Amino acid sequence: MAEETLTPQKVQKFISQWKVYRDDVSDPCFNSLEQIEKMQNELLRRQISRLAKDSRFYRTIFHEYGTDPASIKTVADLEKLPLTHKSDYMANPESFRLTPKESRIENNLWEVNYTTGTTTGKPSPFYITVHDMYANYLAGLRMYKVCMLAPDGININLYPFGPLPHIGYTRMFTRTAAIGRPWVSPTIGMKYEEIPVHRSMEYALDLIESWNVKPLLLGGIPSFIRRLIIKAEQQRRNFSKVSDIHIGGEPFNQNVRDDLRARLAGMGAQNVRITNVYGFTEMQTSVAECCEYSGCHVSSPDQHYFEIVDEKGRRLPDGEVGFLAITHLNSRGTALARFINGDMMKITHQKCPFCGRNGIRFMPLEGNVYATRSSELIKVKGTLINPNVLKSEILGIKGIEEYQIIVDLKDPEDPLSGDELIIKIYTEGNREDLKRTVTEVCRNSVEMTPKVEYVPNISMIYDINKSLKSVRLIDRRPK
To answer: What CATH number does residue 175 fall under?
Structure first.
């Protein structure tokens, strides 16, 4: 069942019902675009001054490019700076950590998260100060205000409890605490034999079914949540208390939403709100939809400035697809300016017709997903394809519980042999019917005939006990 049409009037009525949202009188998202930009310009000038004094990396950038930090007065002036690439950050993460000379309590280290590995093979640390953590709490509160999550009920954190702190797991707790809503975690994920605190999917199912509280929110990675709900359906579990699902970390589309809702309806849950949540380590928070495919609202315009740029750093207009660049406006730990995270997206500054907010929204791309990882654009059989289109179509095929796309040589021993597209599938349904459907979908979406292979065990494609996210695309061809 689709959501009821959202209106700005309904949003204001919801906000007025809950003191925690009512009291957030400094929320800039309902201000005019002119007011938001004025605020951002003031914050940017202060942040650039910090970078010039306290950031080794950006002090060097200002010097090498002959850029006077004082000349960057507005967000439009950011084009005077070059893009910061992930390789820059990976090469020396410590050079991005601010080192203020004055000792202030808000500059104390609160925690460290980690992102992609460095050139030494070690994970890249991202430093969060007391100031930054307070900001993360406020951004999380506003994200939940965007998706109209009531402070009553309880949140079940189904992100993996992994060997390194990651924002999927940690930020679900901080934003839940920010609105005073209880939360719990079944601590699924990669097991650590010496200290056995990790639990199974069965434990997670028992935990969800045991709560007599409604509304109940499930938050996690799409592939794991879908597998958990399929398992619950097979076991005829009572999931009638589930009212919301927040999914992040992987792309998913309308077919997945419809599939999850239909399965949950069979377990007693009605009118489940399924919300797309998008975030990444360097942002330290997430953005969310006010309603399905409305666009993900940047509810922290006082903390982050986003732009869409081409490869040379030239800013692109609304509606064009390009690289997402983030500039921190008020960071005290790790601080970045015009940082490219590797995602290709499009944005709009138009007022949201559903909730009435202003500012930037990330808008859906092909297949109703919000971002395309630029590194996933690959050439197969001489043709450049976007695997996200194929992923989106496969997600819509009923009966597939897990899948993986592999590109390999037809003869791995012969480097001159042609390419082969392989789609691995786990299903408990009719294999021959699925093979025909997958083949047809592949031909229609990327104009190629795949080799369809079945795996006997679902963990051969994605094992939650071994990895944070499923690996949907593998290119085995020699580099």
So the answer is: 3.40.50.12780
